[in-house]
Amino acid sequence: MFDFQKRKRKHSELNQGEVDSEAFHKKVRSVILDGTRSLVDSVRSLGYLKEETDAVKEPLPSQECRLAALCEMAKELPLVDDEEQECCSQSLVAEDGCSSHVDLFSGLTENRTDRAAVVTLMGEEYVIPPHTAFLLSDFTRIQPLVHYGRMFDLVVMDPPWENKSVKRSRRYSCLPSSQLKRLPVPLLASPNCLVVTWVTNRPSHLRFVRDELYPHWGVEVVAEWFWVKVTTSGQFVFPLDSPHKKPYEMLVLGRYRPSVDLSTRFVPVEDQQLIVSVPSALHSQKPSLSEVLKPYVGAEAKCLELFARSLQPGWTSWGNEVLKFQLLDSGLISFCILRPASPPNQC
């Protein structure tokens, strides 16, 4: 006879990861709740939010990125020797203003013009912002980025963290945490470079970034921020205390080889800041951090995004889905706000 009571007791027991997650949630709960209330009230007073409560909707199915499949096929191509890497970038638009033939895998592709360009790849149209460079590749072909000859003042990355639900849905390929150490961040970051990593609210991922990955690169942790996801009426997209999904994710910010004169060059990075936004309906699309990070890196900073799924004007981007959200019919983030987690004295 099947023992339903035994199964119920066993199902109710939490594993160590779940215990750690609950402990972490209790630690940050008041920061999330109080800070979000303050920000949402400020924005609602400006008329940016709806008054009615809207229903929580599941993200749209992730679009299949056919360019990621191209990266797999490109592994069969011969690797370019270091001696042949002198010219590791190519212009998307020729001098006569027409689109030029580009090899997306051997080097970085640049839109050097002041206007966005529309290109057709595999029968689909993609929008390439002005003054943008990108490399479509995976780890096996990241060398053109290293040979690009540019050191960056800001590096942002959103790794494809291992996740059971993602594995089941097959939305995208996951990457073991240990593989992230292979990223050549020390070869790409200038001294004092701000390194920002999106992290799920899984404590093991947070510990890995804070205690293993950043020290491996020579990056010193300076702050941990939260991205809080709300509906168009200002409600959490999931109940704050939901045992399954939390309405927030984290960002770990650090400085690469910080120098002693850092305080005189940049605004100090404050800890426990909140970014509050209405998330895109497209799975895994994150809000742009370009404007909110500008005070900490300067207006003229050279910026790089790793594991990118979209492009930003003036940025360099790398990933095997780097053009995923550049399709003409992609969605957009509705709004994004950054304020201290504690209620400000005045708006």
TrEMBL record:
- A GO molecular function for this record? nucleic acid binding
Coiled coil (residue ranges): none
Q: Which PROSITE patterns match?
A: MT_A70 (PS51143), N6_MTASE (PS00092)
Q: Which GO terms describe its cellular component?
A: cytosol; nucleus
A single GO BP: methylation
Q: Cross-referenced InterPro entries, in alphabetical order?
A: DNA_methylase_N6_adenine_CS, MT-A70-like, SAM-dependent_MTases_sf
Signal peptide feature range: none
Q: Which Pfam families match?
A: MT-A70 (PF05063)
Q: Which family does it belong to?
A: Belongs to the MT-A70-like family.
What is the official name of this protein in its record?
Answer: Methyltransferase 4, N6-adenosine
What organism does the record attribute this protein to?
Amphiprion percula
